[in-house]
Amino acid sequence: MGWNSWNTFGPNIHEELILEIADAMVEEGYRDAGYSYIVIDDCWSLRERNAEGYLVPDPEKFPRGMKFLADYIHERGMKFGIYSAAGVKTCAGYPGSYGHEYQDAKTFASWGVDFLKYDLCHFPGKGVCRNAYLTMSMALRSSGREILLSGCTVGEHEPATWMRSIGAHMYRSTGDIADKYESFRNNGVSQIDRLYSSAPGCFNDPDMLIVGMYGNGNVSQLGGCTDEEYKMHFALWCMMGVPLMMGGDIRKMNDFCKKLMLNKELIAINQDPEARPPYYENKARYASTARMGLMKLLSNQEMVLGYFNFADTPLDVLIYFDDIGVPFYSGYGLELTDIFTGEELGVKYDFFTPRLEGHTCQLYRAKMVRR
Hints:
Helices cover 25% and strands 21% of the residues. It has helices spanning 6-9, 15-27, 30-33, 65-75, 101-111, 129-141, 181-190, 227-240, 255-261, 264-270; strands at residues 2-4, 37-39, 79-85, 115-119, 148-152, 170-172, 203-205, 245-246, 279-280, 291-297, 303-309, 315-316, 319-320, 332-338, 344-348, 351-352, 355-356, 360-370. β4, α6 (129-141) and β5 form a beta-alpha-beta unit.
């Protein structure tokens, strides 16, 4: 959980912005809710390394350097993250870490870096992607500092099959997200069959949150999303148990989006210690992904039922309780509570079928009770 600069600010990053974000994380309650990382993405360095081959922070953007920022963030009880790439250059054309992995890892450690987002651009044709990420993983482990490795191959090279084994702590399994409904829907739905590869130690990452952008920022398109669509986006990421890296300008977040991303119930679902992926019960029934019913088991013996209508029109979203292991003959029903409103719906048997408007969702905490 944390915040990343790319979605809203892209190349327009600087020291004052990061200091203000750090202060806002504390003052607005995000840190205390669990958002602990502040990550500077691409475009933070000079265009060339220095004579000794070291990366140099752009002195116009970051006049007091990265260690100053790291210290400022650490003093406020959070962790500091930075960006590099496995290629010769980053995606924006700044120096990458190819061939400099151990040198860069030592540099990052000396600055107090806690998180490295490691992208894949400008990669040499003779290079081997897996080995490049393994080399950086080993370099970070030799740096003398614990640094989280966030591998980002934008879903290429089948990262789910090897990122955990090379030591990554999270990995991008999709292309870049954009601030529009179709983008987060496609990213989320595309990963349903791959969420089995998320577990403590290494998590599938369908990219950062766009909540609260409303068409403003580096990845915004055509006016952004509605409140209900941002609600779907955040709820789906929480149900999937994937990283929650905020991408909006938290200094200017409206009340709806702030309350959404600070929702203790939703965060608890995302951060459940067993980190079980959701069970996609209706996959075989629906020919399309217009509607989706998810069940997620929690460590306290309860579960969450998630209903998502990705269609433009109202639909009934159905979950048969027999398909999630609670048939009528078991003698048990499910006592449901609306996670967003707190409304108690009583005990349901056999099935529960809410009718949802287009582009909306509903989540219910469910407890098994004897009939």
